[in-house]
Design a protein that fits this description.
Helices cover about 40% and strands about 20% of the residues. The chain is α/β, with parallel strands linked by helices. It has two domains: about 5-115, Response regulator (Rossmann fold, 3-Layer(aba) Sandwich), CATH 3.40.50.2300; about 125-255, Arc Repressor Mutant, subunit A, CATH 1.10.10.10. The strands form three sheets. Strands 2-1-3-4-5 form a five-stranded parallel β-sheet, sandwiched between helices.
């Protein structure tokens, strides 16, 4: 199999069912922070989590995991609560109402694994640019070993730059790949999201070393992070200039 199953908060009969000898390798996270750290370190092929102990925090964790990567998520939720709908809206792939029997839980896990196939998070293509590491298959990004939460569009933009490290990627190519060909003239979108990436990945977003600007042409990802860019505008300035609100920058998950 491509990776283990990451388990958070699952106890009792449900935990025993997941630990059956027919189940894949299990790793257990004791806290939300450990769950995010193991998500990066172990690259699981599925996350199973019980949110009964703290529904609001559990839904938020589900949402954050979905923001970070595309790993299948199975949530165990208490009966007669709104948590099931909240988890599905947050990005869970399946929800099971407690109490649940071992055979049903195992069947749902296996169904999600079959659906995901072997194309889920794995230790696949890795690209490094200085302190930044990009895992294309797992859709994960880390800086100095610490997981950085990117939105799907931010990751798509970074991936487009990373595929041609040190190569100048024209505005039109980035806009076409990330937004679609109908947006190739909307460079303000590109400038905004370059700003968001710099806020998350650069030590000093006003003096970037990784994501560099070639004025009027495009951007490049500097492989060694040693250069300095001529574009120092922040996303706050760009958003104000275009009348666009800044989206949530996400969370940097540390051990």
């Amino acid at each position: 199999m491509a990776g283990p199953v990451l388990v958070f908060g699952v106890e009792g009969a449900a935990a025993a069912a997941l630990r059956d000898e027919e189940a894949p390798v299990i790793i257990v996270a004791q806290t939300e922070g450990a769950c995010l750290r193991l998500l990066y370190e172990e690259r699981p092929q599925l996350v199973a989590m019980d949110i009964s102990g703290g529904q609001e925090a559990g839904v938020q964790l589900c949402r954050l995991i979905r923001q970070i990567c595309d790993v299948p998520i199975l949530c165990l939720v208490p009966a007669r609560s709104e948590a099931l709908v909240a988890c599905l809206e947050a990005g869970a792939d399946d929800c099971v109402v407690k109490p649940v029997g071992g055979p049903e839980l195992k069947a749902r896990v296996q169904a999600l694994l079959r659906r995901a196939g072997d194309n889920g998070p794995s230790s696949g293509r890795l690209v490094s640019a200085g302190d930044i590491t990009i895992d294309f298959d797992a859709h994960l990004v880390s800086k100095r070993g610490i997981l950085v939460a990117l939105s799907p569009r931010e990751f798509k933009l970074l991936a487009a730059l990373a595929e041609g490290r040190n190569r100048l990627v024209p505005h039109e190519e980035l806009l076409s790949r990330v937004w679609g060909v109908e947006f190739i003239n909307d460079t303000h979108y590109l400038r905004l999201y370059i700003g968001y990436l710099r806020q998350k990945l650069e030590d000093d977003p006003r003096n970037p070393r990784y994501i560099l600007t070639e004025w009027g042409v495009g951007y490049r990802l500097c492989a060694d992070g040693a250069a300095s860019s001529r574009d120092s505008e922040t996303p706050h300035q760009l958003a104000a200039g275009f009348g666009v609100g800044q989206p949530t920058l996400g969370v940097t998950a540390a051990g």
